[in-house]
Amino acid sequence: MIAAEMRTPTMEDNKTPRLVFLALQLEGQERTYLLRLRKVLNLLVERTHEMNKQNALLIESALAHVGGAMNAIKKDINKDSTYQNKGKKKDSSEKLSGRFMSKEVKG
Question: Residues 53, 38: contact at Cβ < 8 Å?
Answer without folding.
Answer: no
